[in-house]
Structures are given as C-alpha cells and as structure tokens.
Amino acid sequence: MPVRARGITKSFGEVVALDGIDLDVAAGQVHGLVGPNGAGKTTLLGLLLGLAVADSGRLEILGTPVGRALAAPDGVAGFVDGPGLYPSLTARQNLAALAALRGREHTAGIDEILDQVGLTDLADDRVRGFSLGMRQRLGLAAALLTKPDLLVLDEPSNGLDPAGKKHVHGVLTKLAAEGTAVVLSSHRMDDVEALCSDVTILSTGRVAFSGPLTKLATETHELDYRLVSSDAATARRLAGETAGIRIVDDSGVRRDAELLVVSAPVPALDELVKRLVLAGVAVRELAPVISPLEAAFLALTEQPETN
Ligand SMILES: Nc1ncnc2c1ncn2[C@@H]1O[C@H](COP(=O)(O)OP(=O)(O)OP(=O)(O)O)[C@@H](O)[C@H]1O
C-alpha cells in the first residue's frame, strides 16, 4: 500500500489542521483529495512528501513507517504550493539541472517528458516568462524524471487550459496504469470525476468520506435533475403523477420553457422516462443539476450557520 495513514493529527498553534486522518491509497490508484479552503489538504499532502511531520498517528509511505525526520521517502515525487523551478533557466535546463542534482543521467528522457506534458515548443524558453499553467506542467515533468511509485500533487489542474488539462490527465492516467499511486488535491469536481477512481472528502481536518467514486454515486440517494423534453407541460403532469418524483421550482438553474427540474431517486426517474416515451414525449436532456461528487461535497462539508 503506497499510503497508509492512521489517526494523523497536525496542529499549527491553536489551529488543528488535521484531526485524526485515516487514508489508504493503493498502487495504480488516482486518489482525489477535496474539501473547502482550509480543510487540511495541503497539510496532508505535505506530510506525504516529507515536508512536515505529523504530531501523532501512524504514517506508512511505500511500506516504510515515516519517522520524525523531514525527508521525502525514495520513490515519492511531487509538489505543494507550486513547483520549485529556476526562473533564469529554460524548461529543458530546469529538468537537466534536476536530473543532475539527483545524480543520474536523465537527459535522454527529457525530450520525451517535455512532449508528454505538451511543452516541446517551449523547451528552450526561460521559465521566468512562464504562465501558471506552464509552470504546473513543468512541475509535473520534473516529477516524472524519476518514475515515482507515489506522485503527490497539490492542485495540478490550476491554471491549465483545456489542452494542458488533456496532457496532464493523459500523463497521470498512464502513470497510474503502470502502477504509480497518484494523490492530488483539487477544487474542480469535474476534474476529480474525470480523473480519480477514489476520493477523500476532508472537512475541517477530518475525513467526511473516503472510498471509490462509484460508492459515492450509489450512496447519494436523491439528486436534482434537469429534464428537457419536447413537451414540458406533459412532462410536468407526468412527473407530478409518478411516485417518488418531486418537482423543484426554486432550484436556481436557468429557467426556460422546455426545462423541468425534478428531485428523484434513480428508479423513480427511470419510471418517468418510460412514461414520457409512452406518451410520445421526447427526452432531449436528462442530467443531474450537480454531480454526485459535488452533491456529497456540499452535504458533507457544509458548515453550520453561525449567528
Ligand atoms: N504553516 C502554517 N502555519 C499556520 N497555520 C497553517 C499553516 N499551514 C496551514 N495552516 C492552517 O491549517 C489549516 C489547513 O490548511 P491547508 O493549507 O492544509 O488547507 P487546504 O485544504 O489545503 O486549503 P486550500 O483549499 O485553501 O488550499 C488552515 O486553517 C490553515 O490556516
């Protein structure tokens, strides 16, 4: 198991950043860490990278218990708070310098790595002029210099354009398929859904959910769905007549003539679709207003209102 954490706590003065965290990340898994600002994601990723030590609890990285020393265990790569790069060197020189620092001749692989992250055209430009998204891609390239068994990335999609995202997703998916365990944090639920097999939802330093994304979807019993059909009036009538379906009027989503928003468990929704088709009403669009992950995120991390 590349990551096995039990009862991890970490405080900064009065602030309890991590409050009894359990986390398992298996080889070949892309594991998403999500949670509101300040939930403890970066702190946890920092522990995995050996940038800080926990106050208490047990942490095993790649099968080795982590001690009190600040050191990145062998086989671990990644970054938090943006990658550390030399601004006056080019992208290629940055990678060559890092490879040299690690005492190995990696230059043969540098062109291929730059290509994987989509930086070939910028290989000989100085990093000083790089945008956030370009830096993120170069940071990932640096992490690929040694093929890591555990890759830890804080907000790797930050600042990426669609092409950059495609490259990064491609690289991470390929690494995971080859057995690397990937742990990444993100505020983008769509990215996590596209990329991760498993997710941990953190809320004020505690684990609110940890497990496969598919489990989260089945545990979410009822969601709001947008239904666009060829006959909204009939759809509204049939929805009202179908057991388990509730018509939502104040959902805050775009209102238009063909759109109906209903709240329903999946079997009731199936029944409604069958009735619509029997009545000769075409279903043009049927999708959750927010995804199961986003719904779970909001439900599990909602802060009680303070008056
Ligand atoms: N070096 C530090 N000194 C003092 N407090 C810290 C330090 N690092 C983190 N904290 C506090 O610990 C808590 C968790 O912070 P952390 O950065 O891990 O959250 P996060 O989930 O990564 O947030 P974000 O989504 O905003 O990046 C916050 O309350 C933060 O203020």
* H/E topology pattern: EEEHEEEHHHEHEHEEHEHEEHEH
Q: Helicity level, as a percent range?
A: 25-40%
How much of the sequence is in beta strands?
Answer: 25-35%
CATH architecture name of the largest domain: 3-Layer(aba) Sandwich
Mass-distribution shape: globular
Largest sheet, spatial ordering of strands? 6-7-8-3-9-10
Return the structural class: alpha/beta
Overall mean pLDDT score? 89
CATH superfamily membership of the largest domain, which one? P-loop containing nucleotide triphosphate hydrolases
Number of helices: 10
The strand count comes to 14
CATH topology of the largest domain: Rossmann fold
Number of domains: 2
Q: Any ligands, ions or cofactors bound here, and which?
A: adenosine-5'-triphosphate
Q: Taking Cα atoms only, what radius of gyration do you get, to the nearest Å?
A: 23 Å
Instruction: Return the CATH class of the largest domain.
Output: Alpha Beta
Query: How many strands, which pairing sense, and closed or not: the largest β-sheet?
Result: 6 strands, mixed
Instruction: Compute the separation of the termini in Å.
Output: 44 Å
**pLDDT < 50 runs, ≥5 residues:** none
